[in-house]
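User:
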Amino acid sequence: MKKLLMRDNFILGIIMGAVAPWILFVILYYLNILLGNLILHVPYLLRSTTLQLIAIVVNVFMMRQYMVKYKFDKTGRGILLLTFIYILAYFVNDYLIK
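Assistant: Predicted structure:
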């Protein structure tokens, strides 16, 4: 698995940039509900839009790791492309559609 992730490939960066925020969002979403119900007896602590932004931040850390530490520019650019797409989709959804 480690050998698969340690390649300088644009498509790999796109896949990683697409999957990582979804995984983090699902984890944060259920943790938010669980902690809200157990501790404060409220349905949720944070709004869904806040969780979406927090999930997008994971791409920034991955991008930095691949571009600075490993010097994999193509993978970092793939992650950066998906980060911009997610941020654009967030603002369109939150401010133009709602």
